[in-house]
Amino acid sequence: MPVLVASDLDRTLIYSTGALALAVPDAEAPRLLCVEVYESRPLSFMTETAAGLLAELGDSAVFVPTTTRTREQYGRISLPGPPPAYAICANGGHLLVDGVSDPDWHARVTAHLAAECAPLSEVQDHLLRTAEPAWTLKHRVAENLFAYLVVERRLLDEEWVKELAVWAENRGWTVSLQGRKIYAVPKPLTKSAAMREVARRTGADLTLAAGDSLLDADLLLAADRGWRPGHGELADAEWTAPGITALPERGVPAGERILREFLHTVRAPH
Fold first, then answer.
1. What is the spatial distance between Cα 160 and Cα 226, in angstroms, rounded to a whole number?
2. How many Cβ atoms from other residues are within 10 Å of residue 40's Cβ?
3. Is the distance from CB of 35 to CB of 226 less than 8 angstroms?
4. DSSP 133
5. What are 84-89's contacts with CB under 8 Å, separation 24+?
6. How does DSSP assign 26-53, residue by residue?
7. How far is residue 172's CA from residue 168's CA, in Å, rounded to a whole number?
8. CB of 251 closer than 8 Å to CB of 21
9. What is the C-alpha to C-alpha distance for residues 185 and 68, in angstroms, rounded to an integer?
10. pLDDT tens sequence across 132-181
């Protein structure tokens, strides 16, 4: 029976230059592989060692990239190893099969959101009315499923974020602050639901997961075993649960450690 490995990407397996956290002298820094280019500029990286581990993992398990990115944003990433047969985008709103969104899955998700949550338009309007122009750089809607702001983090009003979280909670939405982005996402829009669907289709008897943010918590809880790095929302909250391993590594070294943990578990008897 196959092992399914569902992993978040940004700040879990791949890292922007600002998130690398290379806490070693320059001469000792690991060699990096660029895995994403945007507007002709290198944007995301992993260590060359991590790249090799990911290629091995792709040959040993059903590896499923699992991201809040839109399909277009995910398409910019070029991961080492065999092309994944499945990928989860838009926080579970799109299940890609050989690179193409499964229309039946997307229809099921959108029907679920319409039945249980306040409409996206209401959340958009609230964000536009209450976010301060002084720290709001961009306002975006992703796949017509959720919204997010790009902010100037040093100017951000943390109390506003807390108030937004309470407001959203009462309308069936959740809020996550990741780097320079504040996400507002419907609660039923989850990575875990999509992971369970892939597990059903592949017949996986063991599921592994990793992630760093609040939006990854449901994914980690749904897996048989999960890992979180030493940075991110979950680490800041000292979040843990049975079956979850909190790693001490931060930044790009954490991505390498997570892949080692995946491979070790995949190859162990189970």
1. 31
2. 5
3. no
4. T
5. 84/58, 86/62, 86/198, 86/201, 86/202, 88/6, 88/64, 88/191, 88/194, 88/195, 88/198, 89/143
6. GGGPPPEEEEEEETTEEEEEEEHHHHHH
7. 6
8. yes
9. 10
10. 999 999 999 999 999 999 999 999 999 999 999 999 999 999 999 988 89
Distance, in Å, from the CA atom of 231 to the CA atom of 19, rounded to the nearest integer, reads: 10
Q: Which of 21, 18, 15 is nearest to 33 (CA)?
A: 15
Spacing of C-alpha 209 from chain mean position: 11
- pLDDT tens digits, 49-98: 999 999 999 999 999 999 999 999 999 999 999 999 999 999 999 999 99
Q: Which residues of 186-210 are buried (b: 16+ CB within 10 A; e: fewer)?
A: beebbbbbbbbbbbeebebebbbbb
Q: Let me know: does 231 contact 212? Beta carbons within 8 Å.
A: yes
Closest listed residue to residue 64, CA positions, set 213, 256, 202, 245: 202
CA distance 45 to 79: 10
Q: Edge-to-edge strands of the sheet including 86-89?
A: 86-89, 94-97, 100-101
Tokens of 102: 């499964």
